[in-house]
Design brief:
The chain has two domains: 126 residues, 3-Layer(aba) Sandwich (Aminopeptidase), CATH 3.40.630.30; 176 residues, Gcn5-related N-acetyltransferase (GNAT) (Aminopeptidase, 3-Layer(aba) Sandwich), CATH 3.40.630.30. By secondary structure, it is an alpha+beta fold. Strand 10 and strand 11 form a beta hairpin. The chain starts with 10 loop residues before the first helix and ends with a helix. Strands 1, 2, 3, 4, 5, 6 and 14 form a seven-stranded mixed beta sheet that branches. It is built from ten helices and 14 strands. 35% of the residues lie in helices and 27% in strands. Helix 4 packs across helix 8.
């Protein structure tokens, strides 16, 4: 069975890390594959595998872990942070591992793009399709860009959303570097006021594409965009363009866990994503393989102190 390699474990992601100034190492063997980023903290180094390592069975995981441990030794790492995609990881979880705060989403919503366009459109919310078809008449157009400076439109919308929802935002440099990558595209929904002819960006979305999947990673809309259903219109465009590229899956990139309270920060996003006739995909979540227990405790204490400081 061929191993599934997510975009965060790919050669392209390896190049992104290098462009961001991060030290990363890519290892690919017949039974396992991983991209690991070497992270530095005041208490010591650790290794991070975003949505990795990749393998087909527990034996493959053990082989990847042995390789990672050797690498950790070379870089004097305190622990190895992994995010296996196998939801059954707990059944063979190492004894020196500990569940950590999830960095990448543990649950996501996927849309199958296979079949003809009519089959796909039947999976899309009819209400949003109507908005999409009438968008031009209402003065809404959608553009694609790879110009790093255009990331400001997404950032402006995200900062407003962050204040409202209390969520974090990536730096301009980080997002610009992402947009420079060949797998990245920024979509902008523009609205032209019929009375004043003034134009504004009312929604933006940053997507990544690999050989099979479009990942809908970053997005935001303005108050005006909310009134005009801009995110819905934009999402329809993202999906139809992914289909036109012969991709097979659209990944909405993260939903709130089952049973999450209505005030969960992702509650509204989740309700929106689930209006599309897709399916839920669960992963193992984020785990730390602890190699140096004493230093790991110091790391945890420092991280807790930083979180308290940020809240204050």
């Amino acid at each position: 069975m061929k191993m599934k390699i997510p975009i965060t474990q790919s050669k392209a992601w390896h190049q992104l890390q290098e462009d961001l100034g991060e030290k990363s190492i890519l290892v690919s063997e017949s039974t396992y594959h991983y991209l690991v980023i070497i992270k530095h903290t005041p208490t010591g180094n650790y290794l991070y595998c975003p949505y990795g390592p990749c393998y087909n069975n527990p034996a493959g995981f053990n082989e990847s872990l042995n390789s990672l441990k050797q690498l950790a030794k070379e870089h004097n790492a305190i622990f190895i942070r992994i995010e296996p995609e196998d939801p059954n990881f707990k059944t063979y979880q190492p004894s020196n591992s500990k569940k950590s705060h999830d960095l990448n989403p543990k649950e996501t919503w996927l849309l199958d793009l296979s079949g003809d366009e009519d089959t796909l459109k039947a999976k899309l919310p009819s209400r949003l399709l109507r908005y999409y078809k009438s968008a031009a008449k209402k003065g809404i157009t959608i553009a694609k860009t790879h110009e790093p400076e255009d990331i400001k439109y997404l950032l402006n919308l995200q900062h407003a959303l962050a204040e409202e929802k209390g969520i974090g935002v990536f730096s301009a440099n980080y997002l610009k570097t992402e947009l420079r990558q060949p797998f990245s595209t920024l979509y902008l929904a523009k609205y032209q006021d019929p009375e004043t002819s003034e134009q504004e960006i009312i929604a933006a979305g940053l997507v990544f594409d690999d050989d099979t999947t479009r990942y809908n990673l970053q997005g935001a809309q303005s108050d005006q965009g909310r009134k005009l259903h801009a995110t819905g219109i934009l999402t329809i465009q993202l999906i139809l363009d992914a289909k036109a590229k012969n991709l097979t899956t659209f990944d909405f990139w993260g939903i709130a866990p089952e049973g999450a309270p209505s005030d969960h920060p992702w509650s509204g996003f989740t309700n929106f994503k689930k209006t599309f006739a897709g399916y839920e995909k669960d992963y193992a979540g984020t785990y730390d393989i602890i190699l140096k227990p004493t230093k790991y405790k110091l790391y945890q204490l420092a991280r807790t102190a930083n979180r308290v400081r940020r809240r204050v």
